[in-house]
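stuck on this one:
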Amino acid sequence: MFDVQHWLESLPPIAVYLLVGGVIGVESMGVPLPGEIVLISSALLAATGVVEPEWVATAAATGAIVGDSIGYAVGRRGGRPLLARLGRRFPRHLGPAQLARAEQSFARYGVWAVFFGRFVALLRILAGPLAGALHVPYRRFLLANAAGGLVWAFGTTYLLFTVGRAAEHWLKDISWAGLVLAVLAGLASTWWLRRRAHRLEAAEPPAPETEPPAPDTEPARAHSGT
């Protein structure tokens, strides 16, 4: 993540904003990309004054909402065959096991899975396409999608920005400690949401036990002798 931040620092601010929105948007369409790493790195960069936090957060929220909506449209048009193709292309992230867990989360929590899914790597990628494939009503999906995207983007950005500025002020002589503190604070900022959201990734209920086949009660045919 530190290498990502150094690379972002070499870019002009407008390129950073476009990159944040683009990476998060493509990730939200169903393609595994490091959207959260880009957001955290950009928020820490904002604490140094290189970019503006409001634009980082706006770009992240826009990418999340638009990307999820495009993913929803693609999922609604392509259905489960599309999800199966994504699983074959990205088996580590979108394989049958991951898809089954995400589908179970939608079945149990409905649109709340979209909101809290913004804070979980698996559902952050699958929420849009899966909601479309399952024909979740778009208005309900959009409301949960927008709320989750705004809370995630602005909450993460501004908490990291605030803590990073404080760390830069008090820890000028040990800047690495300020960076570590900012990262830890960013992780803690979404802890309670992640704790609840990880329930959405609970293991599937065990399959019902199958009864053993009944023994063959037909008496063996006796061989008659003369």
